[in-house]
What we know:
By secondary structure, this protein is an alpha+beta fold. The protein has helices spanning 77-89, 112-127, 134-149, 155-162, 196-209, 211-234, 237-253, 259-270, 296-305; strands at 8-19, 30-46, 54-58, 61-65, 96-102, 166-169, 173-176, 183-189, 275-279, 286-291, 310-316. The strands form 2 sheets. Strands 1, 2, 3, 4, 5, 6 and 7 form a 7-stranded mixed beta sheet that branches. A 4-stranded antiparallel beta sheet has the order 9-10-8-11.
Amino acid sequence: MNGNVRAARASAPAKVILLGEHAVVYGFPAIAVPVSSLRVFAEVKPNPHPDRELRITGAGLELYSVPSSVSEQADDALAYTVRLFTQMMSVPPPNVTITIDSHIPIAGGLGSGAAVTAALGRALALASDISLPDHLLNDLVYEVEKMHHGTPSGIDNTVIVYERPIYFTRSAGYDLLTIGTPFLLLIADTGEKSLTRTAVADVRRLREASPNRTEKVLSAIGDLVTQARQAIESGDPQKLGSLMTENHELLCELTVSSQQLDILVKAARQAGAWGAKLSGGGRGGNMIALVPFDLEDAVRQALYDAGAVRVFRTVIESGLN
Length: 321
Ligand code: PMV
């Protein structure tokens, strides 16, 4: 690979979980959609410093790594990605410079870690003229996700790699969803960083301490997801919104909401959103609101007034995402 690397650039999107986070870890279904307007870009170039094996740069970051010496425990997910790529593709460690340019807030439940890995995997394949089919890229991203999350369900890597709305279960994988009617999501950032790994571990402890009660909540979330699939496919955003709000209440019972998430959920609903909930690991990060198109400005303003530090928009429609 070293001899023939050329410059290449690739990208991957952010994602949000519409319904079913946390329960998906225990085998229940969940629905996730890509956020194609929020992306991370990875650029791979032949290394101008041939004495160093791998050079990684980013905003204010420049480090050198030898991918073959990187372990699963290493903090350096980028070098680990390169190592897994070389193993999977049976190529020698590349002598390249990697530059990551991410527009996705980190530690906010938007899948920034999985998106970085997906973009880098694609860029490495392009740079070395290797075909990397999506199912292999998905395996690669899942492996790196384990480093970030411990026991990931696999939903983040799947929605990010395929960049389509998906219905996902751990046992059966993903189904691509048909979107009956396009719908608008506003995504609001609490500004509170939170680690998915911690929230997932706390839900596990809750499940051990109160198995019956917790299992009931997880299973109720699973039922909402089944109904939500129907609402999405038949084009009933109002129904979908109310299912999302119910899902938020169940996530509160799992203790993964936060005061600021609850404030933003309430503000969105009071301003006319059809429904709102936290999205992802919770305890901070981002929430989502399903908003009638004509109320977009009002709900966005209400979210900022209630303390959101950023509000993104995305329209979910079949085939375009
Ligand atoms: O990466 P996050 O914060 O969007 O969380 C992923 C969703 C969880 O269900 C909480 C964890 C998982 O692996 O599915």
